[in-house]
Specification:
Strand content: 15-25%
Largest sheet: 6 strands, antiparallel
Distance between the termini: 39 Å
Number of helices: 9
Structural class: alpha+beta
Radius of gyration: 21 Å
Shape: globular
Low-confidence stretches: 127-131
């Protein structure tokens, strides 16, 4: 291949039967998370997942004509993994002033109910704060009686978390009788992005061998530094070295494919979400020259959690444009099915920047059109490779 994403997409689309058979065989070996979302970056030469979220918070960004098939996927996944469960307790984040998250919950709640489940939502917190969610719908109080969780008089058979546990696992969730999905170990208090990409690198390498492609074309190089404190300039030597090594690896492939762009890497918190703790650099010495705002970004993330582990990830400049804005595709999955996707746009972004930041917009994908293209098939395939990697990641971390 000549290092063109279009050529990669045509190749995978031509061999779509082989790709589907490979994925089906691998999925059969794993217990998949109930739901997952994957962020991709697609450049002119390659495509790669750059994040996988086990507590997706953007179901409201999916096209409404996809909701019925999403409910079917939810019903199939519930039947497969918990065949006798009909009552679900949905534990949600405390974003009481975030109307977009409230819209997400409204859609997610509707999808679960349409799947045939009885659903009640709850915060973890004081009862006085839980009367409503942005005045849109009722949210109960999660309480515990013995080893079982309840929401008022409602006793769930399954606890579905939509709160990512960034600030730790509350005692109320520990050692309960009902199954909890995703498992507590999937929360950002425990999970690390580097563990995910360690698994993805191996999954993608095996897939690439089976489909006769260069694994770099579907993978972003990464490294990690632990016990870092950017605010106190602790661990900068490790970061400088890791940035230099990652840039050197990228340059080898840029030379091989005659890519003239300047390679860069993304520094991000190894645990956390919402696009927090993200800085781009294209020179190892830039690590020691980070300004105050950049140091602050790499020091504290959601819920005031301190950053001590930093992921160094190959930067993939986005070649996608939607409505004239730089864009990256995001795909949502329930069980092993891709139920839809949307574009994350950014009014202020450039091809090398983090798009999950101020100025971002969302554009639902027209699935009836996108699903027919080679590029959309490639997007979906990589998203499912990332899903498979989350299953392997959780299986490894739970043993």
């Amino acid at each position: 291949m000549n290092g063109s994403f279009d050529e990669l997409a045509r190749h995978l689309h031509t061999r779509h039967t082989d790709a589907e058979e490979w994925l089906s065989a691998e999925f059969a070996k794993q217990r998949l998370p109930f739901y997952c979302s994957v962020d991709l970056r697609v450049s002119s030469c390659k495509a790669a997942p750059i994040d996988a979220n086990l507590f997706p918070g953007g179901f409201n960004n999916l096209a409404t004509d996809l909701h019925a098939s999403a409910s079917e996927a939810a019903a199939a996944t519930l039947t497969k993994q918990w065949p006798n469960i009909k009552r679900i307790g949905l534990v949600v984040e405390r974003h009481t002033r975030n109307p977009y998250y409230a819209s997400h919950l409204s859609v997610l709640n509707g999808l679960l109910r349409a799947s045939g489940a009885e659903v009640k939502m709850a915060f973890i917190g004081a009862a006085g704060e839980l009367a409503s969610y942005h005045n849109q719908f009722a949210v109960g109080e999660l309480i515990r009686r013995g080893d079982k969780l309840r929401i008022g008089d409602f006793e769930p058979e399954l606890i579905l978390l939509n709160s990512d546990l960034s600030s730790g696992v509350p005692d109320i969730l520990r050692d309960v009788e009902q199954p909890i999905e995703p498992p507590l170990e999937a929360g950002w208090n425990f999970r690390r992005k580097s563990s995910h990409f360690f698994q993805y690198e191996r999954v993608a390498s095996r897939f690439a061998r089976a489909l006769d492609i260069d694994p770099w074309l579907v993978c972003a190089y990464f490294n990690v530094c632990n016990r870092v404190d950017i605010s106190r300039r602790i661990g900068l030597d490790c970061l400088t070295r890791a940035v230099g090594e990652t840039l050197a690896d990228i340059k080898v492939n840029y030379m091989r494919y005659a890519i003239k762009d300047q390679p860069f890497v993304v520094l991000k918190a190894d645990a956390g979400t919402y696009g927090m703790g993200v800085v781009m650099v294209d020179d190892e010495q830039a690590v020691k020259k980070l300004n105050r705002r950049q140091r602050q970004s790499l020091s504290v993330v959601k819920d005031g959690a301190l950053v001590r582990d930093i992921l160094i990830q190959e930067g993939v400049p986005t070649a996608d444009r939607v409505e004239g804005l730089v864009a990256e595709p995001v795909y949502y999955m329930i069980g092993e099915r891709v139920i839809g996707g949307f574009w994350r746009l950014n009014e202020k972004g450039d091809p090398r920047q983090n798009l999950n930041s101020r100025g971002m917009l969302f554009w639902p994908m027209a699935e009836n059109i996108e699903a027919q293209s080679a590029s959309a098939f490639t997007h979906r395939t990589l998203a499912r490779l990332a899903l498979l990697s989350t299953a392997r990641e959780l299986a490894t971390d739970l043993t």
